[in-house]
Design a protein that fits this description.
It is a single chain. Helix 11 runs antiparallel to helix 13. This protein folds into three domains: 74 residues, no CATH class; 82 residues, no CATH class; 37 residues, no CATH class. The chain has 13 helices and two strands; from the N terminus they run H-H-H-H-H-H-E-H-H-H-E-H-H-H-H. Strands 1-2 form a two-stranded antiparallel ribbon. Helix content is 53%, strand content 3%. The chain is mainly alpha-helical.
Length: 237
């Protein structure tokens, strides 16, 4: 990073040209916007084509499949970009969270809870939300606060198919406890952790060379190569 900053400073001192990209007044939508990714990553989409969500590709490829294809592009520029994989994954999580989250309630309590929802004090609920968001440990004291907490106990926020969500972890815990109840407690725990920074195949996947020719590399070079291409490490695993 220091070398890149020094090179950029030298470029500016030599009156080199720069490209300035400003901010628009209105935020760009990540829904049905094929130009969102080409605008965010002009160095990855140099001609402005190939954005995610194109109408002609929707019938053939989902957005997730399109992102996988880009991550496996032959020159590996999408894999090795610092921001593209994390932005693409964040968008997946946000969209899944928005479209797949809903509230569940037991059927026999539906009428009762509906009535309690309609009778809640919005100002008390907003105050509780703010205090909880600030990290405060809230103990309900008034009747209105206890009613709000009663609703929280009856309702369950579900997003089980959203990767990395709290609901996914909750379902995984329930599955583990069910397996222990059915099969008994495990006697052995085995963790597989391949040494990706030492394996020649993983180093080949992370590098940009086309020919597979294992070479002796220093430890720092191997670590830097694997760290710069997490997609290759995932494929190797």
């Amino acid at each position: 990073m220091s070398a890149l900053k020094a090179r950029a400073l030298k470029h500016l001192e030599n009156e080199g040209k720069t490209l300035g990209i400003g901010h628009d007044d209105k935020p760009e939508s990540m829904y049905d916007n094929p130009q969102a990714y080409p605008q965010m990553f002009p160095w990855l989409f140099p001609y402005g084509y190939g954005g995610i969500g194109q109408a002609r590709l929707k019938k053939k490829l989902s957005e997730s499949e399109h992102k996988k294809c880009l991550l496996m592009y032959h020159d590996k520029r999408f894999q090795m970009d610092l921001y593209f994989p994390i932005v693409a994954f964040n968008h997946e999580q946000m969209k899944a969270g928005v479209t797949g989250s809903h509230l569940l309630v037991k059927r026999q309590k539906f009428a009762e809870i509906k009535q309690r929802l309609m009778s809640l004090d919005p100002s008390v609920l907003s105050n509780l939300i703010k205090r909880l968001a600030d990290g405060e440990h809230v103990q309900p004291e008034t009747k209105e606060e206890k009613d709000c907490y009663g609703i929280l106990e009856d309702l369950d926020h579900v997003g089980g198919h959203v990767q990395g969500s709290l609901a996914t972890k909750k379902y995984m815990r329930n599955e583990i406890w069910s397996l222990i109840s059915f099969l008994g407690a495990p006697s052995w725990f085995i963790t597989l952790s391949p040494a990706d920074n030492r394996h020649p195949i993983c180093l080949y996947l992370a590098d940009t060379g086309e020919k597979f020719s294992p070479a002796l590399r220093s430890s720092a070079e191997r670590n830097r190569l694997i760290a710069s291409n997490p997609v290759a490490a995932a494929c190797f695993f």
